[in-house]
């Protein structure tokens, strides 16, 4: 078997000396072994410290060995490679932990009973109850928000792509960008200021209005991107046949990009479904079933999670319900994402690339 | 249909359209249907502008109601007593908390996000790049309240080890001293925010790194550059403005994040030198946690603090957009 020293002696005209392919693994194994040795010898009880020592040894060892065999530039390259890998693994840890904990703790109480009952007669600290009222509230609020935001968003995007010239279009584009950055709680405060003025009590539709404000710019932006993908030849062909512009847009441009537009709207829906802050201010939460979004406080799934966490004084039953509701929410959002991306792939316009 | 055939048959030498006709054709709106449709779509666009204006106007109006009765200095007071007579409240603590938590989040998230973007575009095996990018997208889809729940119940207990270590070796700085209480502090909030803004920074940076001219990279490789040298000499300089604007988009998210901060932080409306001890507050967290028991005047005061948050995020996002606008090829709005 070759090792570093042998590889060093082998002459090559085109390439400098390289470490063999297995060397990173060998160095990694070596540093882990040494780290365990150091950890045992020094009596360090934390496994995290062992890991840190192993990591430092690996980076240092790689640099020294690579610098001796391959030169300093190659050594730097190897360090950069290992740092990039470390960053990636570091980011995976919280994601895996989040999904794992949510699934593991959420399945405990997640069953048909949980999905079909409300919290009406259950105190926050007691076991039992469910999220039916919250699911109902979320579906109604998000549905109404979509009914407002989707048409406005799509029409605005059509204006920007098909008609938009001059100052009006430019300022709309700018403010759509600005609107994407509005914190959700500010959108909630805006509707709240209207409600204070009209002396209204919390109700579901107020939440829908705030959610619609958050949703509109997302729909505009994604629809715009999709409309821009429609080849100009299609528009020209239709116009050349004498079809009016509005019919060209409705019968040619929009149908061509309908897959992408649907995807954008669904992703926007997925995004506002998880919004808690505006719902907290405007819809207020309710442990009873309230099917009327236009009167009286309603519940909502994200709000339910927050209230189970906040109002239960650490009751394990409430935490279990919070996790189960989180799992339901994540499952719903992920499902929307997957279906949306599926539609995008299935209906993607052929751009010739 | 019949109009176009008539025209072509009637005049074999194609008649040049007059100026007026050309203009009308260019404008497109010549028929009743066109006019209605144009009015509808332009109306929607104007509606968006009206909403933005209304947000600014109404928030300012309600805020002015509260601030005019404030007996303390709204910008510098260290208290939030809206129920007392006279009411005294100020945003100094919130400004501090919001900025500190966001800075911590940025310091952690930006290097890691850039590294992940590089990993996806330049380091990962070709077949892995796509799925990883997809997973990062899903990470962005997780609702913030779930991050909050996870942060409060899983992340906070995990922080004890790190905090003890920081306190032992860096406690003398004052910034990292720890009283051993629950880790519901600014540093934990910053770490959680970093996890939450990682996807958006990664996605936008990735888009930029993808657009580095292939020729530049190949030229560097042909000159014998290592992969790291290629990245340092051609990828990073090309992507710098993109990374900056991506970071600012992430900063905008971090500044306005409500639920994750509200669940993790144990607020006390005070400024602490130590990042490890529980306490502090941010704009959004303060609104969410004080809203429940606030009177109408108290709500106006919260709206006033929300207005400040609105202005800050507008400035940050505006700056990010200005940088993006200089390079029109990509937009971070979808990320």
Automatic annotation (TrEMBL), chain A:
<keyword id="KW-0813">Transport</keyword>
<dbReference type="InterPro" id="IPR000515">
    <property type="entry name" value="MetI-like"/>
</dbReference>
<keyword id="KW-0592">Phosphate transport</keyword>
<dbReference type="InterPro" id="IPR051408">
    <property type="entry name" value="Phosphate_transprt_permease"/>
</dbReference>
<comment type="function">
    <text>Part of the binding-protein-dependent transport system for phosphate; probably responsible for the translocation of the substrate across the membrane.</text>
</comment>
<feature type="domain" description="ABC transmembrane type-1">
    <location>
        <begin position="135"/>
        <end position="340"/>
    </location>
</feature>
<dbReference type="InterPro" id="IPR035906">
    <property type="entry name" value="MetI-like_sf"/>
</dbReference>
<feature type="transmembrane region" description="Helical">
    <location>
        <begin position="173"/>
        <end position="197"/>
    </location>
</feature>
<keyword id="KW-0812">Transmembrane</keyword>
<protein>
    <recommendedName>
        <fullName>Phosphate transport system permease protein PstA</fullName>
    </recommendedName>
</protein>
<feature type="transmembrane region" description="Helical">
    <location>
        <begin position="48"/>
        <end position="67"/>
    </location>
</feature>
<feature type="transmembrane region" description="Helical">
    <location>
        <begin position="322"/>
        <end position="344"/>
    </location>
</feature>
<dbReference type="GO" id="GO:0005315">
    <property type="term" value="F:phosphate transmembrane transporter activity"/>
</dbReference>
<dbReference type="InterPro" id="IPR005672">
    <property type="entry name" value="Phosphate_PstA"/>
</dbReference>
<keyword id="KW-1133">Transmembrane helix</keyword>
<dbReference type="Pfam" id="PF00528">
    <property type="entry name" value="BPD_transp_1"/>
</dbReference>
<feature type="transmembrane region" description="Helical">
    <location>
        <begin position="142"/>
        <end position="161"/>
    </location>
</feature>
<feature type="transmembrane region" description="Helical">
    <location>
        <begin position="79"/>
        <end position="100"/>
    </location>
</feature>
<dbReference type="GO" id="GO:0005886">
    <property type="term" value="C:plasma membrane"/>
</dbReference>
<keyword id="KW-0472">Membrane</keyword>
<comment type="similarity">
    <text>Belongs to the binding-protein-dependent transport system permease family. CysTW subfamily.</text>
</comment>
<feature type="transmembrane region" description="Helical">
    <location>
        <begin position="203"/>
        <end position="220"/>
    </location>
</feature>
From TrEMBL, chain B:
<feature type="transmembrane region" description="Helical">
    <location>
        <begin position="132"/>
        <end position="156"/>
    </location>
</feature>
<dbReference type="GO" id="GO:0005315">
    <property type="term" value="F:phosphate transmembrane transporter activity"/>
</dbReference>
<protein>
    <recommendedName>
        <fullName>Phosphate transport system permease protein</fullName>
    </recommendedName>
</protein>
<keyword id="KW-1133">Transmembrane helix</keyword>
<comment type="similarity">
    <text>Belongs to the binding-protein-dependent transport system permease family. CysTW subfamily.</text>
</comment>
<dbReference type="InterPro" id="IPR011864">
    <property type="entry name" value="Phosphate_PstC"/>
</dbReference>
<feature type="compositionally biased region" description="Polar residues">
    <location>
        <begin position="1"/>
        <end position="11"/>
    </location>
</feature>
<dbReference type="InterPro" id="IPR051124">
    <property type="entry name" value="Phosphate_Transport_Permease"/>
</dbReference>
<keyword id="KW-0592">Phosphate transport</keyword>
<comment type="function">
    <text>Part of the binding-protein-dependent transport system for phosphate; probably responsible for the translocation of the substrate across the membrane.</text>
</comment>
<keyword id="KW-0812">Transmembrane</keyword>
<feature type="transmembrane region" description="Helical">
    <location>
        <begin position="186"/>
        <end position="205"/>
    </location>
</feature>
<feature type="transmembrane region" description="Helical">
    <location>
        <begin position="301"/>
        <end position="320"/>
    </location>
</feature>
<keyword id="KW-1003">Cell membrane</keyword>
<dbReference type="InterPro" id="IPR035906">
    <property type="entry name" value="MetI-like_sf"/>
</dbReference>
<dbReference type="Pfam" id="PF00528">
    <property type="entry name" value="BPD_transp_1"/>
</dbReference>
<keyword id="KW-0472">Membrane</keyword>
<feature type="transmembrane region" description="Helical">
    <location>
        <begin position="89"/>
        <end position="120"/>
    </location>
</feature>
<feature type="transmembrane region" description="Helical">
    <location>
        <begin position="36"/>
        <end position="61"/>
    </location>
</feature>
<keyword id="KW-0813">Transport</keyword>
<dbReference type="InterPro" id="IPR000515">
    <property type="entry name" value="MetI-like"/>
</dbReference>
<feature type="domain" description="ABC transmembrane type-1">
    <location>
        <begin position="95"/>
        <end position="320"/>
    </location>
</feature>
